[in-house]
Amino acid sequence: MKNSHSYLAAILLRAEWGLSVILHLKGSPSSPGTLMRLTGTKYACGRGGCGACTVMVSKRDPTSQEIRHFSVTTCLVPICSLYGAAVTTVEGVGSMKTRLHPVQERIAKSHGTQCGFCTPGMVMSMYTLLRNHPQPSEEQLLEALGGNLCRCTGYRPILASGKTFCLVSRGLRGHPQSKNDGDRRSSLGTQESQLFVKEEFQPLDPTQELIFPPELLRMTENPEKRTLTFHGERVTWISPGTFKDLLELKAKHPEAPLILGNTSLGPAMRSKGCLHPILLSPARISELNVVSKTNDGLTIGAGCSLAQVKDILAERVSELPEEKTQTYRALLKHLKSLASQQIRNMASLGGHIISRHSYSDLNPILAVGNATLNLTSEEGTRRIPLSEHFLAGLASADLKPEEILESVYIPHSQKWEFVSAFRQAQCQQNALPDVNAGMRVLFKEGTDIIEDLSITYGGVGAATVSAHKSCQQLLGRQWDELMLDEACRRLLDEVSLPGWAPGGRVEFKRTLVVSFFFKFYLQVLQELKKLIKPFPVPVSALAFMGSWQHKLPPSSLLFVDSHQPLQDPVGRPVMHLSGLKHATGEAEFCDDIPMVDKELCMALVTSTRAYAKIISIDLSEALEIPGVVDVITAKDIPGTNGTEDDKLLAVDEVLCVGQIIFAVVAETDVQAKRAIEKIKITYEELEPIIFTIKVSRVPGLSYKVVESEVPCKLLNVRLIQGEVHVGGQEHFYMETQRVLVIPKTEDKELDIYVSTQDPAHVQKTVSSTLNIPINRITCHVKRVGGGFGGKIGRPAVFGAIAAVGALKTGHPIRLVLDREDDMLITGGRHPLFGKYKVGFMNNGRIKALDIECFINGGCTLDDSELSLWKFLILKLENAYKIRNLRFRGRACLTNLPSNTAFRGFGFPQGTLVTESCITAVAAKCGLPPEKVREKNMYRTVDKTIYKQAFNPESLIRCWNECLDASSFHNRRKQVEEFNKKNYWKKRGIAVIPMKFSVGFAATSYHQAAALVHIYTDGSVLVTHGGNELGQGIHTKMLQVASRELKIPMSHLHICETSTAMVPNTIATAASVGADINGKAVQNACQILLKRLEPIIKKNPEGTWEEWVTAFEQRISLSATGYFRGYKAFMDWEKGEGDPFPYYVYGAACSEVEIDCLTGAHKKIRTDIVMDACCSLNPAIDIGQIEGAFIQGMGLYTTEELKYSPEGVLYSRGPDEYKIPTISDVPEEFNVSLLPSSQTPLTIYSSKGLGESGMFLGSSVFFAITDAVAAARKERDIAEDFTVKSPATPEWVRMACADRFTEMVYICPLPLEPPSHPTPWAIFK
């Protein structure tokens, strides 16, 4: 954003505005004609947790006089904090209209974009890295991208694009050979493998980057010393120019907080409604950034960012001997994983300390390291220790209201002193810790006698907790096993957690308390061995696992037929049509549409009760707020208010927290949300209130499918039974639900711009809600920022409510959900509870299987019927032929938001039950699980449980290719050998087959239409009924049209999906979007070519432009193509039919390593072989496989929904809900497509791969359970255990039971007082 500062200065109207508001400003109140509209910077979470809004801020360092470039998230950056700074957005980096930057070019051409909503943030993180390090290391690349989330790609192609800039970059073409891989090409065919050609990229030239604005340079040469004050509507921002002025202001406004990075205060103001009338910004105070080095320690200014602190500590570590840098190294370890690069760039050391969050990663280390805080006020200076009393907020050890923290002194460590830091979080990077710790021990010189000991924990109380009493009791003791046992018992007594403690996971946290100390014990033993000779060290210490270093995965393997004509784009890795626009921020999403005349904003009012009667609603205060126009209630709906069981707007009663009651319409979004705070709703609680499957209030639907029922006792088999729990999953599409409804001036017509997978459903719902004909409503979908099933049904609800507002007010209505509201309202994947009984032989052959599944449908059935009946039950058998089967299912009603469609639609949950049965049988038989899988897989042409015939040849090929490509059997032996040598860390490996049924179980859902126009200049416009969700459907459709019309793709264009162009469309879902719409496009093109045949025959050597002059001969150059759909039917009474058009086969092998002491795991390698037949676009298809796999991996390992006992969703943002990050990608990630496979049913013998890869993520889950089973076996614990997904660190740690978990269960929890009879959270 070149010269952005001058513009920003002109529109500083509200001190409380953030940078993201300014960038998206569509017209300022003072100057409605002035537009900024830099919409490339996306707004997604509002908490700085997803990175979609990343930009680069540049400032001149007053000390070094160098220009510093750093990435920040605009949703947290107060606009007033940018005085003197230059802001560069993605638009300033490069554009399609001017010149692409190499970062933008490479991420697009490396196929690193799908939906594209996160891409501008990715580009800006990489761009900032390159401005600082033109040839970065791979570690720096990972660090730079650690704060950017992507829900589509699986990250691998994004990393591949970044690796092209790295100083040392591993092979970018083909498959990286492992030691035991052999010649993989021989088994996978003679196709060319190429991801991209690095030589084709334009080089990076640092001399051509934007310069720092000269006017800002002049400002830094003569810095403004006067105090700057910015007045907002409710907040005043004061920025003093001198240290003296700051102290005077703090004395005058002692309650005013100091704000630098806004990473703590900002989220609190947003989520908790905290409002501070005065904010003091010390950003211009150079004294707060002073760093001084002495012989005994290091003093760091409180204003230094955490990123600067990291650099300062790294420099000091390189200068000093190791014995003096123990504390610095411990701090560095946590700074690498603390939050994200963007947050570390913004957050200050002083702010981190003063915030005193219970989960602080640095305070426990600073406390044990005897850090001192240097405080200053008008009265003078003083020093206080960063002690347990300060961290607890005791007045005697705290700052006085008029004092500020000037700097922090961290002393050197000394010889015979050891400091370590520990943390465990839901995932490795960018996640708040469940528990962290700082530990320090000082020995009497030349001995292992404890002279001083300090242990501090975070995450186990309201503040950082010091185990001072335990440490004092251990002074003078030897560092040995007796001391260890006593220390653990004392720590559990002193660091106590009640069962209702905030954050839950009490047993897990207590286990980590002693597990961390044991890790510290082992680390110190290893250090003592270096200093005291001879010094006995137990074997467990020698095999101790240190910290993991994540590595970049190599590139994936792409297949292109070497014999294909160059002019034919089908089957080639064509770049996503919008790839370059994604990378430049020019791709327009729903909320990027400019403000229209008289537009109003809408915000939703939702229930705060799980099951209650609405007694009264008081709107009086809300309607008095300036700018509030109206409130939309159920009484304003002229037509149908949803269905009897599922209302658009609640009437009389609410069934869950988050149910929509009414909507507020105002001139601005801020005014609408402020009005919501003033609305008073009185409820009367109803009973019973039910949240879990096991005690569901009313059973919903039930169904069963039976192959044959023969009692196990007649089969003379062994019998086992068990349970499987699969948690729900949030869609977490990067673009939240949003809609813009524009009423026209006549005939009650409406234009609706909506982010949806099913515009026809939105159209129909709005029609019935407003009681107007469907033909008056046009829905437009340009592109969708991710859907995954969550934008099939829900957008119709928001579209209908917004349409009621537009009809009532006569104004256009824009409704954009915040991330918190989106997650609270919309529901997600159905949680599942499964029970199984399986009869089997000693050789692993399963003779009988009985599975009963219960899914949590939420407060209404919604898609539960379809998910249960037509998908989950029919797909349970997966790849196995079992003669005696009974599958039963039931949808349960609870008082949670209604769950809905999600990628895979029941298959990922249900099939996990089946695979768990296989694993349980293998354990009982003493066989490897893969042997039992092979024993029971389909082998010859056969029929499924519902009597649909199929040929499993491709299934077997995928299985065998995966075993071969992954060197599975050799690696199985290596895993077993590793586990014999390591007690506290274990590896696991698993290979999973898959038979995924594609499509809807109904013919009518497989029809599609397309409209193709040929214009007289030879250009062609293609329109079809599919929606671009990031899966590349528009790209594939143009590839189809290009082949059929035999013209270059450059002649073709797709504008949008519109119900006015192609009516009565089917939802883009069930993996058939490209299949059926491709058939329709093919049909339309063939019709047009048929019409052009006479012209072409007359002039066979003519050009395309000459042929299309057929218009002058009265030949229509417009055609509608239609595909009647695959035949699919199911007789539900008989349990027989052909419900699915075809199957996608695949197999995945994953290897992991777990830390038995913390439950953490790392993904070592994944190999996937997928049967894509003849891929329309292998780059896009492999991207779909990778993205689905990573999303599935999240379902099975990290993504956990947490509800309060009152039914309030706790996990409503990226802070609490952890989707996989870039560090979760397997260190080696190989994907290949099975060649020479055919399916004549589909377009060019291709297959839909949008969903199938999801379940393959379970290979990571089963690799983890394999490692857990190895740990349990070594500890003589039963190898069979209740399977629970996700396999979080908590589940893994507690499953690896040992003496530390036993200590936790032996030491009782504090008794719960009567006022706290319930746990902190319900985990779904």
UniProtKB/TrEMBL annotation:
MF GO annotations: 2 iron, 2 sulfur cluster binding; aldehyde oxidase activity; FAD binding; iron ion binding; NAD binding
Residue span(s) of domain 2Fe-2S ferredoxin-type: 1-93
Note on how the cofactor is bound: Binds 1 Mo-molybdopterin (Mo-MPT) cofactor per subunit. Binds 2 [2Fe-2S] clusters.
Active site, per annotation: 1251 (proton acceptor)
Entry binding sites for [2Fe-2S] cluster 2: 115, 118, 150, 152
Sites where the protein binds substrate: 905
Residues annotated to bind FAD: 258-265, 361, 405, 423
Pfam families, sorted: Ald_Xan_dh_C, CO_deh_flav_C, FAD_binding_5, Fer2, Fer2_2, MoCoBD_1, MoCoBD_2
Cofactor names: FAD; Mo-molybdopterin; [2Fe-2S] cluster
GO terms under cellular component: cytoplasm
Top-level division of the source organism's lineage: Eukaryota
Residues bound to [2Fe-2S] cluster 1: 45, 50, 53, 75
UniProt keyword terms in alphabetical order: 2Fe-2S, Cytoplasm, FAD, Flavoprotein, Iron, Iron-sulfur, Metal-binding, Molybdenum, Oxidoreductase
Chemical reaction(s) catalysed: an aldehyde + O2 + H2O = a carboxylate + H2O2 + H(+)
UniProt enzyme class: oxidoreductase
SMART domains per the UniProt record, alphabetical: Ald_Xan_dh_C, CO_deh_flav_C
The keyword Nucleotide-binding is assigned to this record: no
Keyword DNA repair: no
Domain FAD-binding PCMH-type: 230-415
Subunit structure: Homodimer.
Family affiliation: Belongs to the xanthine dehydrogenase family.
PANTHER family registered for this protein in UniProt: XANTHINE DEHYDROGENASE
Name of this chain's protein: aldehyde oxidase
Organism of provenance: Bos indicus x Bos taurus (Hybrid cattle)
